[in-house]
Structure formats: C-alpha cells, structure tokens
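thread: overnight batch results

M.L. [08:02]
morning all. the overnight job finished for the chain we discussed friday. pasting input first so we're all looking at the same thing
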Amino acid sequence: MFENIGEMLVLFWRTLVALPMAWRQRNKIFEHFFEIGNGSLLMVCVLAFFIGGETALQTGPFLAEKSFGGYLGGIVGYSVCRELAPILMAILIAGRSGSAMAAVNGQQMTMTAPAQEFGGNLYAPIGTLAEGLGGRAQYDGQQNVVWLTLGNSRGFVRVP
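M.L. [08:03]
and the structure it wrote out:
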C-alpha cells in the first residue's frame, strides 16, 4: 500500500516540475485535448443512447405505476447528460490516451509500451517498430545496445 502512495507522490512531484513546460506547450496540449475528445465523442453518444434506453426500460414501469410516466424522458435525459456522460468520457479518454495498440499495414498489434511525444518527437518502442517492418529487435545488456535485424541487414542502437 505504501509503495503506491510513494509512486503517487513521485508522479505528483514530476507533474509540478513539468508545469512550466506545459505552459510553453499549451497549444499542443489543447490540440491533443481536442483530438482525443472528438475521437471519443461518437462512442460516448452511442453508449449514452443505449444506457438511456436501459434506464428508461428499468425506470419506466415504476414511474408509470406512480403516475409520473410523463416525466420519464426528462429524468433519463437529465441523468444521462449530467451523471453518466462525464464518467463515460473520462473512461474513454483514459483508455485512448494510454493505449499501447498500434496498426501496421492494417494489422493490429500490441506495443510493449504506449508511444509518447516529447519535444515534438514521437517515441515508440523499437521492438514494435522492428516487428512492423518485418524484423526483430534484441537487447544486449552487456554492450548496452539494441540489435536490429531486418532481412539480411543487422545494425545496433546504443542505449544511453
């Protein structure tokens, strides 16, 4: 339990230290917010539609029995928009932003870690990139290098 608290404190400290850089990169941050939000909006609408329908099916007979059947649409709309939509959006955004999925030539593959952007550069796991190109990557801990094999060619990348 205490190691989780320590990890949270370290993450909080790193967030505080990175805040000045976030202010300088605010345009990119807002572009990512916009892209992630638009990418998840359709899924949120579909989920809200079906959850609203289920809520109406579960609540409708009870409200009709108590002579409040005319209020069903308002109650369902209010509950879905006010209570469920923010939760659904948060779940979808959390799932998309840390995703370790990639598509290579239309084939879906799982990366060992999600791709990340730092300083305008996109970093992805080299093993996933090598596999996507039809090769393989192997880490050599003694020499501190990653060997890349693509067909008959072989090279290495030094790990700092």
